[in-house]
Specification:
mainly alpha
Length: 269
């Protein structure tokens, strides 16, 4: 009996490589969002980013809102567009990284699906008083500011989306220091780059890349993460007979669950 070949989409970790598992895929996307935000504010001395605090906020927003991988990927595309325009006054006026991420997730959700949360629900997701008119007004203003910064262009074609997802994962994987693959198994573990000077250097290079990237070209080219991934064997990817354990995105979520319930307020400061 013949079975149809499984069609994999860019929001599925299996689409990229069988040595890259779901936890690593999710964690890479989370880190990609954080690094894109850092990149946006890299030259803005008025904005101070606490990576662990921002990570916690992002994880909780995604978890509580049940945001899909696809929406996160599109929100990151909007982030990249803002990076390209980071010297514009409208973009420079966006001084709160948490507000920025939340607003882009809201916009990506509205573009990607018909049924969406109301502003009142988003306020509730944050653990705040859903009847607080000031919080609702803040989200409405944030949405308008981001729409203006993005020139009201939220459209993403299928080709742009697919190629962007591959670029995004290459970007995220660049900040992995080493990946060890267990011999005779598809299982692997990764170690993330921790040298701040090296991270800043990579961010600078990616900033130049994104600044020069013509988003329209993502409709015409074909970019595959797998090609980049295979090029990293014996450079940062190694076959190993031994295994080491690192925390995954699931571990982080489990730890967060033990310390926090959904009624706790998420600080947007």
């Amino acid at each position: 009996m013949d079975f149809e070949e499984e069609i994999l989409l860019p929001n599925d970790y299996k689409y990229y490589h069988n040595n890259f598992d779901k936890s690593q895929f999710n964690l890479t996307l989370i880190n990609s969002a954080i690094y894109l935000i850092k990149l946006l504010y890299l030259e803005d001395q008025e904005v101070e980013i606490n990576p662990s605090n921002l990570r916690f906020f992002i994880l909780q927003v995604l978890k509580r809102s049940k945001t899909s991988i696809q929406i996160l990927q599109i929100a990151c595309l909007y982030l990249m567009k803002l990076i390209k325009k980071r010297n514009d006054e409208k973009v420079k006026s966006l001084k709160n990284p948490k507000h920025l991420f939340l607003g882009l997730v809201i916009l990506a959700s509205k573009f990607n699906q018909d049924a969406n949360y109301s502003f009142k629900t988003w306020v509730k997701i944050l653990g705040l008083d859903s009847e607080d008119k000031n919080q609702i007004k803040l989200l409405k203003t944030l949405e308008i500011d981001l729409l203006q910064a993005l020139e009201y262009n939220l459209y993403v074609s299928n080709a742009t989306y697919e190629n962007w997802c591959n670029v995004l994962l290459i970007f995220g994987y660049d900040f992995i220091k080493v990946q060890k693959i267990l011999a005779d198994s598809s299982k692997s573990e990764v170690v993330w780059e921790s040298d701040s000077a090296l991270i800043d250097s990579k961010l600078g290079k990616w900033g130049i890349f994104f600044s020069n990237l013509n988003v329209k070209n993502l409709d015409a080219v074909e970019i595959k993460f797998i090609n980049y991934y295979l090029s990293q064997f014996n450079l940062k990817i190694f076959i190993s007979n031994s295994f080491f354990v690192k925390r995954t995105i699931d571990d982080v979520n489990d730890a967060d669950d033990s310390d926090l319930n959904d009624k706790v307020k998420l600080s947007c400061k």
